[in-house]
Automatic annotation (TrEMBL):
A GO molecular-function descriptor: hydrolase activity
Organism: Hydrogenophaga atypica
Coiled coil: none
Positions of the SGNH hydrolase-type esterase domain: 9-173
Protein name: SGNH/GDSL hydrolase family protein
Source organism phylogeny: Bacteria, Pseudomonadati, Pseudomonadota, Betaproteobacteria, Burkholderiales
Length: 201
């Protein structure tokens, strides 16, 4: 008997974006509409969650889960904004601060992906997008430190990767309710890319 695919969406508001699409459809709605007959999808992601919260999400995975999709890291980066706004005495001192931020994120992110590896399901990992309207070049550079961790850790576990920096590049991809969140247009793009990944996996 062939097992029907069932996708579990893990992570943050990139996948749990219903409150940011006014009179529109969220990522999970687009995904459910675009999936073939018999293919299921469960939203386990929670708006606002960080890497430390995904362990609880893993406990809520449906028993029939066959594929995992993870979007995580953006809220971890947001938590560091107060530190990033602090003055530094030199460029080297600033880089030292950034290295410590990256090291702490790496510790948490690597531990999370190790736990996800134990689930032993095909896994798609999102990077953190950086085309948010109004995002400064300095903050875009800071996000690259988090994305370096995401990419290297996902590759080490041989997880598949969706590069959101290349997918969500237009101002219309971001919500009018909150510009750091994905819009309905972005939801369609994400759902289409996830559907293709499941079909090809």
């Amino acid at each position: 008997m062939v097992t029907q695919p069932h996708i579990a969406l893990l992570g943050d508001s990139i996948l749990d974006n219903a409150r940011y699409v006014v009179a529109g459809q969220a990522v999970v709605d687009h995904l459910r509409q675009g999936l073939g007959a018999g293919i299921g999808c469960s939203l386990v992601a929670v708006d606002g969650d960080t890497t430390r919260n995904v362990y609880a999400q893993l406990q809520r995975l449906p028993a029939n889960t066959t594929h995992l999709v993870l979007s995580m890291g953006g809220n971890d980066a947001l938590a560091w904004l107060p530190t990033l706004n602090q003055p530094a005495g030199s460029v080297m001192e600033a880089l030292d601060h950034l290295q410590r931020i990256q090291a702490e994120f790496r510790e948490h992110y690597e531990a999370l992906l190790e736990q996800i590896r134990l689930v032993n399901k095909p896994t798609l990992v999102f990077t953190i997008y950086d085309a948010v309207p109004g995002l400064t070049p300095a903050l875009r550079a800071a996000l690259s430190l988090f994305n370096d961790v995401v990419l290297r850790t996902a590759m080490r576990h041989t997880f598949d990767i969706m590069e959101l920096r290349d997918l969500l590049t237009q101002p219309e991809d971001y919500s009018s309710v909150s510009p750091i969140e994905p819009s309905e247009q972005a939801g369609k793009k994400l759902a289409s890319a996830i559907s293709k990944w499941v079909a090809d996996a």
